Amino acid sequence: ATCGHGCKYGECMGPNKCKCFPGFTGKTCNQDLNECGLKPRPCEHRCMNTHGSYKCFCLNGYMLMPDGTCASSRTCAMVNCQYGCEEVKGQVQCLCPSGGLQLGPNGRTCIDIDECSTGKAVCSYNRRCVNTFGSFYCKCQLGYELKYTSGRYNCVDVNECVTNTHRCNLHAECLNTQGSFQ
After folding, report:
1. Where is the EGF-like domain (predicted)?
2. In this structure, is residue 71 part of a structural domain?
3. The pLDDT value given to residue 35
């Protein structure tokens, strides 16, 4: 089985046929599947799509149960959490639906953690970090593009001299460099 364009989040099953890992879709399994849009809906109240997965959370006044359902809770209603709550040893704690979010100073609302500026995000060589609400992703540095080579995705240098994206004078010669040109 060979897949010319590769299977980013899946495995090659036949000539250019990918079997995607759960949470991914597309011909080369390179797209995140938005589980929140599926029927039947995976969450009882609210759903937050994440990269390759999803998180459930409840409306105010409800508590997220281990099976993903929402149960009415008098204590939760009193705390007034943004994304529902859970009870731990008799204490009511507000929840945030993603590891990239943290409880704000009021203990009820969730604020974004910028993984790129805090150094929590590790992007490989030639990639830069892009923060999103509740998460982050790694994107190719400027002057590089994502290409499928040698059985995997890599950030490969763009030859600006060949693609005609350089700004050289008509009477100057273009010389490609890693990530740029002269």
Report:
1. 32-71, 112-150
2. yes
3. 92
Assess contact for 64 and 58: CB atoms under 8 A.
yes
> How many angstroms separate the CA atoms of 180 and 168, rounded?
12
- Average pLDDT on 94-114 reads 88
Distance CA 21, CA 14 (A): 16
- Domain span including residue 39: 34-122
Q: Which two tokens stand for residue 151?
A: 């059985």
Average pLDDT over residues 21-44: 90
> Strands 46-50 and 53-57: what pairing?
antiparallel
Structure tokens at 135: 């998460």
Peptide bond into 40 cis (omega under 30): yes
Classify residue 19: in a domain, yes or no.
no
